[in-house]
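Consider a typical record:
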Amino acid sequence: MSDPICPLCGRPIPPDVPQSAHHLVPKLRGGKGGPTVLLHQICHNEIHATLSEAELARNFASIEALRAHPRIERFIAWVSKRPPGFRSKTPGGRRAGRNRR
């Protein structure tokens, strides 16, 4: 059986690589029991470093919407050049004040 593919970056997720389930609608915003997607941990970290729970629930509750966000788009271009097992601290730091886009 082949490794699952991360829907955010498109790279395989080997079993020995940190991974986690991302709730498309955050649990605290009504997504408990809702759909989840399996992501590399580094990809999941980038989502939560970039967007607030409210932003995720309101405007970014799909992989397509996440992939279209400018910062996440840049992250995908960067991480897609790394091997599937690549680990790193989240580049670019946590989200800033109110103007996040």
